[in-house]
## 1
Amino acid sequence: MRPDTNTFKALAREFLAALTERSVKPAAIPPAHLPFLADAESEPIRPRQKLAPSTRAAKRPPSIDPRPEISVVLGSYNRRALLERAIESVRANLDSVRGEIIVIDGGSTDGSIEWLVTQRDIITVVQHNRYEEQGQTRRRMTWGQFMNIGFRAAGAERVAMISDDCYLLPGAIANALGRMDEAGGAGLQVGACAFYFRNWPQEEAYYVQRTLGGNLMVNHGIYTREALAAAGYANEDDYAFYKADSDLSLGIWQAGYAIIDAPQSICEHFMSAEETARISNNATLDHDRQQLRNRWPELCSRTGTRKMGRKLLDWQDDARTAERVFGDQLTQQAEPQRAVSSV
């Protein structure tokens, strides 16, 4: 006599329940762990461990705003006048994109912090990164440590990075996001997107850079949070300041992600005469260059270094944005020089 359908279903449920119970039976807890596990006596059923933690955000409760489409991270120290202009350009770019702004301030004393904390749309983190000791300025943290604070605080799946002396032209962020979507639709696993930039007023042409091995890198641009995590975020130990962005870009390539360019995403970077002189005679830059070679020796062959360079953009800004935004900074630099020459 065959069992009826209901009896068969009941037996099947009991069998599956017993099978499940056996499969999730908790492993024996080492005696040394017991004093720290307050729930051990209930023999809890632990969630199955994932092979790799997901960087994708889960759906949020209806009472909470959705995550931003883009997080914009800036580091700053004692450059309030330039920082305010950079933020102005970011805000204009976020008019058409749901975004957030994160500023990591290194302990400014020029009024930057006081201004930042009054800006309700900016997430401000103050990390006193410099101090005086025996008449010398010391750094407590590397560029990688400093920027990782902002990268890890970012709420969006895509994270833009610019400097506090940058100015984004209209549409830079939206155009880069569209470019990343287009490349993804073509089957490319995009980890980052580089903005075209120039160091004004020293340079006229806009470009993106190829680092060791001829690999495209991000000076200013957008990363995916997934690629940042896969690359281990910015190197916090080997570089003081200058080459950690090159290293991060190589780490993204190494993790299997591509870095693309965004020809319609333009970033003006103001380079003062003082900074230009400092870079041209800088032991820290020399140190960081050597560290990059040490970290990526397989890319330092004659062929690998020959592939380094720039990809130029055939475009000029008829609006002369850099001159309009940064022109007064050149005047301020010239006045002390005239004063010195007249003494």
## 2
Amino acid sequence: MPIFELSMDPIEYIRLITQFSPIMFSFIAIIDSAYNTSLKGILYVFGVLLTFSIGKLLSGSFPYRVPGIEDGMNEKDFASSKLESDKYAFKNPKFHPSCNLLSKPDHAGWGTFYSSPDMYALFYSFTLIYIISSMMGNSDLNIFVLTILIFFFILSSYFRTQVFYCVQFRDILIGLVIGSFLGFLWYIFVSITETSLKVYDLTYFNTNKENPDKCAMKNKQFRCRKIKTSAENDEKISQLKMEANQAAMAAMSALNSINTKDNFDMIWQLYVNILKKQISNPTESNSSTMNIFILGKDEKNITEIANDNVIGYNIHSYKEIIYGISDVETRFNENIDSSNVYLYNIGSNEKYKYYNNDGTITTSKTNPKLSNVLATNYILFKTFINEYSQNENAPNVIITINNKINSGNYLFPIKILKDNLSDMKDYSKITQHLLSI
């Protein structure tokens, strides 16, 4: 007979995996954090350890003992009774040594003497509530993950009450309540930390679009009109064309709705793509259009004049590339302070390209005023919409936007896009049109 024989009973492996599942899940979380250079797994495991510490402290306050020991017995009586008689010895020979895998293996400790709260129920309820709260907080439901966790929780509860005889159902219930409460509190703490530090990668399933490192579209340029340039500039323009098309393709691949505050980032991206595409072929305007942004606006700034605070949605990620300012309190008659604006270095080295006060296009090394940038944005957007509306395949929303911008009631095209563009199909059609011209 061989000394060692591999078991072929699948139940044995299921029992083994169930026993070590809390350690396994915690290990996976740490490996995931290391692989993705994120703190979310480490924070989760820290929360688990904190929960177990609280469970250990609370275990002695409950009168419940593991099966085979009378409820209410203290550790001293139990230890001395073992030496004198077997009156208080384990009455249930099926009590399994694996009942205490997650705690100190002392003879009268949590899991071998104190049974409440059940440590496995504590672990799974903490994990489930923490994960569910993260899903709800970040609007990303993952049924597969929930199914796996609930499956192991049910399996663990069955083995610990019916197979290993570690605890009773009351202990499972107590662990469920305490673990759920601590899991929710831990999520609130991590979520507040995440928001206050502006580190959008501490909770699971975080898809927050306010993270500028993840979502900002920078240094992208659309196709420019062919002009007489050097071979070096020709190469730069070709590179800008490719980057612009890649940016538009990425925007087309988005499947979520665009009519919510959290997803307003997509509106900004479309707006800047239109401006970049149109600046390659600008048309002459007239002084009357410029007067909209000049007369009586000297002391105004963006935040004062924007309707419904729409300009405030994600403006901090786009204020430089679209408006050329680092501070939204910049006045209309003040010069912009950022060369990161899309109008910089268009067609010539280290120059700005924008509409002058007389309605003509100019290029200058001098920073333009904010009013000139706003007017340029307005004219480029209006020209794009007017031309697109004449296309027989233009969606109805383009006709609506064209009528509204021609009404003269809007200073900020981003406001028109936000109010009217909510259908993903329309968004895709506009993006496809950008790729085609």
